[in-house]
Design the sequence.
């Protein structure tokens, strides 16, 4: 019981969430998103109640059919008596910050069922803040007691990869005819997928896309077994070339599944693959490893965001970034000495405080 | 939590309730709200009042804009409001209605708790201004 003092509002939210109050959950997520003061204390209090949900990430290009597929998957989970939380992330305008969050429209087969909690989020143009908001909202849903949590996001790009990192299993949805194998080679698509789905499999180009994906997946996995240059110590136990576990035993080769989201074809198979992957994670011990990575990422992320806030404040105290930038434009200053001036007091404060300890800033 | 920096945005649900397939207006509003910097969730067509309530509660919106051109506002809007009340979400949601609403009904809707009714010919900026003024993360 790490009861950091919660404000009365947060204490109410805390109680409400644990009691299954939907409005409390919704408000807590708003606070998390807005980073309202005190929301971190709330998360800290909720943390001990997390860890029981299965978190699935679904990503892919716009129009690939993610939302429709998620909708069908959710319905299956519901039929199975499981409660579900969905976080659907959509981009926001880089100019106005506004957004139209349209994923909810596709999630209609379970509309009206309060045991499916769908929350739309926009990127809001915040630096790294989105992945933090998503990860934190997942925790709120987890503490609320959802059995399954699905995070859906438009694919490609660091933000999305970060978001997907909060998931145990990542499904990459591809639509037929989305380019040749060179497109699939582009970074970030193949590396993050634990399961690949070719949606709209009733389209003509589907077979080709499946074949290309399978070829890529196997290329990524098998060569180490056969091709190893010299030392292969056993038949299938050749070590993986990357961190990817690719020995045949206990390894995971991402399956390529064909679905038709609109009719639900292949969704059974997808669900089975998700469960199989979870089992694999548990059996291989990778689940623990991923947890460790996730915790590390999280600590770093929080730390960075706090420090960034401090830096922003320091900048404000010196007239704000825009004034400083204007000085750079006028040629009176350069960006490097501006940053030195801003960061030095912070560095000094830190090293003074920690002088007694073994402490170095910036490797100095 | 001194290091937390608050980042707020006005969240709106643009909703079509009941058997009414006219969504051009809703699309225009959704887009205008987006351009005003709001986060807009669009419900899609033919939603039951319950579904609108579910969406408004889960998304924790500041503004619920209901577009009705079918004439069924006197039946549908009260149901939505009751639903919101049952989730304790009525007080902090600004409800606006757009569409073809006769004057005498407008008064009634306002009595129920609708903040404003926007009829045909309302300029978009007027609607956006109204929302800016009355809604939002206080």
Sequence:
């Amino acid at each position: 019981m790490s009861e950091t003092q919660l404000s009365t509002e947060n204490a109410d939210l805390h109680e409400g969430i644990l009691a299954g109050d939907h409005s409390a959950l919704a408000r807590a997520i708003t606070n998390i998103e807005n980073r309202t003061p005190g929301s971190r204390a709330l998360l800290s209090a909720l943390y001990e109640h997390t860890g029981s949900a299965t978190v699935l990430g679904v990503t892919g290009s716009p129009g690939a059919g993610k939302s429709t597929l998620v909708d069908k998957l959710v319905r299956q989970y519901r039929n199975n008596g499981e409660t579900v939380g969905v976080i659907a992330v959509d981009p926001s305008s880089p100019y106005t910050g506004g957004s139209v969050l349209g994923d909810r429209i596709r999630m209609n087969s379970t509309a009206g069922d309060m045991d499916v909690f769908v929350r739309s989020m926009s990127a809001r143009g915040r630096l790294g803040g989105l992945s933090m908001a998503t990860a934190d909202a997942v925790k709120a849903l987890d503490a609320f007691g959802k059995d399954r949590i699905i995070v859906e996001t438009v694919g490609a790009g660091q933000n999305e990869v970060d978001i997907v990192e909060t998931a145990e299993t990542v499904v990459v949805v591809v639509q037929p005819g989305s380019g040749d194998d060179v497109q699939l080679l582009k970074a970030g698509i193949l590396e993050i997928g634990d399961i690949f789905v070719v949606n709209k499999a009733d389209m003509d180009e589907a077979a080709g896309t499946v074949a290309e994906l399978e070829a890529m997946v196997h290329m990524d996995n098998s060569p180490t077994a056969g091709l190893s240059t010299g030392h292969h110590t056993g038949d299938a136990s050749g070590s993986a070339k990357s961190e990817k576990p690719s020995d045949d035993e206990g390894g995971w080769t991402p399956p390529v599944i064909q679905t038709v989201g609109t009719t639900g074809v292949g969704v059974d198979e997808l669900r089975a693959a998700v469960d199989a992957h979870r089992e694999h994670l548990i059996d291989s011990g990778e689940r623990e490893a991923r947890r460790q990575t996730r915790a590390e990422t999280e600590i770093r992320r929080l730390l960075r965001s706090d420090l960034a806030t401090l830096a922003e404040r320091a900048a404000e105290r010196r007239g704000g970034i825009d004034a400083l930038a204007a000085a750079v434009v006028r040629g009176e200053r350069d960006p490097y000495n501006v940053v030195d001036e801003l960061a030095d007091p912070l560095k000094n404060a830190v090293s003074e405080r920690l002088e007694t300890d073994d402490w170095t800033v910036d490797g100095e | 939590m001194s290091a937390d920096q608050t980042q707020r945005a006005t969240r709106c649900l643009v909703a079509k309730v009941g058997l009414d397939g006219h969504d051009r207006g809703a699309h225009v509003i959704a887009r205008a709200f987006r351009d005003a910097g709001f986060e807009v969730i669009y419900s899609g067509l033919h939603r039951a009042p319950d579904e609108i309530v579910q969406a408004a509660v889960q998304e924790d919106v500041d503004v619920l804009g209901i577009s009705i051109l079918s004439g069924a506002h006197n039946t549908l809007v009260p149901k939505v409001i009751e639903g919101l009340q049952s989730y304790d979400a009525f007080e902090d949601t600004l409800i606006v209605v757009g569409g073809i609403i006769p004057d005498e009904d407008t008064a009634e809707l306002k009595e129920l708790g609708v903040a404003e009714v926007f009829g045909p010919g309302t300029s978009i900026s007027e609607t956006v201004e109204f929302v800016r003024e009355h809604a939002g993360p206080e």
Chain B touches chain A through 38 residues (CB under 8 Å).
